[in-house]
Amino acid sequence: MWSHIVFEHPATFGTMALEPDKKKEIIEDLVTFSESKEFYARIGKAWKRGYLLYGPPGTGKSTMIAAMANLLNYDVYDLELTAVKDNTELRKLLIETTSKSIIVIEDIDCSLDLTGQRKKKGGKAMADDEKERKEVKEESSNSGNSKVTLSGLLNFIDGLWSACGGERLIVFTTNYVEKLDPALIRRGRMDKHIELSYCGFEGFKVLAKNYLNLETHPLFDAIDWLMKEVKITPADVAENLMPKSPLDDAEKCLWSLIQALEEAKEEAEAEATAAKKVVEQSQDGGGVCSENCLAEKASE
Ligand SMILES: Nc1ncnc2c1ncn2[C@@H]1O[C@H](COP(=O)(O)OP(=O)(O)OP(=O)(O)O)[C@@H](O)[C@H]1O
């Protein structure tokens, strides 16, 4: 059912724009996992680890998965949940995965209706494991030919797949971590939550080295200052640092980034001014304006 292609993504942790401490922590976590066969056997747990990568688009979630695969030399199984017919098919697919693999479900919030809070009893979320398992069982037996359900996925993470032997990582990505069902991402299922965020100056320096082979430049100070003022994704920084013609030298690319940062700064300032105006108007008019209404007015 899986089709095989040779994985040749060039991304590594070395080429990733990421705070150095964070990078070190993630690498250590991965390497420790991959060398812990005996440890997992001793504590009686399946040799698996779940990672949740979350953050805005263009912050490097997919890039990090490639870097993980290259670091550990694991195979990547990219699972498109919306194309999986039902829980039975999901089970089959997962049993076919080999050890030393990373199973990836990208944009988990969009894949399926996995995001809502699950059934609540007496107004309280089903928190403890026993209740959770009972619910999973009920849902699974009702699932019939229906699409993959949250419980199908939880079942797989906790049960069947764990019993397959060999080491496996499972990686979920999302742009909206707050939308996810807490049961899906609790520790034990998603052991390590990694936030990928906007580009800082340290991240920029990695990209400048990769893209322009520059370690320092007089324009770096201006970029450092601007990056503290506005948010920009590593993807946008990378795009600006990419030469667009054979005549583009490093300085031209740096100016292109500075221009993008300045435009973003002007935009943010214009939005802030508009929002301030709305507040002043609502105060003058004596009207009471909710946060939502302020946001709506500011965007008008
Ligand atoms: N942290 C980063 N380090 C280096 N390059 C990055 C980083 N983040 C993004 N990029 C660059 O931007 C491109 C898009 O990034 P990527 O697809 O990894 O983002 P993403 O967070 O997975 O986005 P989405 O949420 O839209 O899937 C990559 O091909 C890469 O060139």
UniProtKB/TrEMBL annotation:
Residues 126-140 have a biased composition (Basic and acidic residues). SMART domains: AAA (SM00382). It comes from the Eukaryota. Keywords: ATP-binding, Coiled coil, Magnesium, Nucleotide-binding. Residues 47-200 form the AAA+ ATPase domain. Pfam families: AAA, AAA_lid_At3g28540. One of its GO terms (molecular function) is ATP binding. CDD domains: RecA-like_BCS1. It catalyses: ATP + H2O = ADP + phosphate + H(+). Residues 247-285 form a coiled coil. Residues 121-145 are annotated as: Disordered. The keyword Membrane does not apply. Its cofactor is Mg(2+). InterPro entries: AAA+_ATPase, At3g28540-like_C, ATPase_AAA_core, ATPase_AAA_CS, Mitochondrial_chaperone_BCS1, P-loop_NTPase. GO terms for biological process: response to stress. Belongs to the AAA ATPase family. BCS1 subfamily. PANTHER family: BCS1 AAA-TYPE ATPASE. This is AAA+ ATPase domain-containing protein. It comes from Gossypium aridum (American cotton).
